[in-house]
Predict the 3D structure of the following.
Amino acid sequence: MTKITLTKQEQYTCHKAALIRAENTPDYWDTRSGAYEAAESGLNLHEFIAQDAAATGSEWAVAKAIGCHFDPYLIKGKRIADVGKNIEVKSTKYNAGHLIIQPIDRDEDIAVFVINKSPEYTVVGCLPIAWAKDAKFRHKVQANWWIPQSYLWPIANMPYPQIALAQ
């Protein structure tokens, strides 16, 4: 595990970037991955934007951990990787949380799992998404895969680092 602390300015930038995404995306609330789950869990739009800012912070923490350039304002969706050429960042605020992979996550990417408790982010580990989509991790009720932290590799062991770190 690698601990990364974002500065106050970096944290402000994460919130600003999340707000800009919300303002410039007419269907932001309706089409964002997790929006329906957020609404079901009682999050309002303001809380959802804060959650989006925390996710941006997680991406920035991964970029800092591996020495990769990061643009918090880049609107990626599922079109391009969160960090570098092939890193999909997944995060949670729960210390005992699982890496959760969705069917729309790209098989060629590497998932990096982060616990986000701003300002400190803990980069827990990584796993190739193609490997994470294994039947043993398939959730019994949801249409996704839940990978326990004990199955994750340290990011120092990330496969194909030359691809992951390419800018």
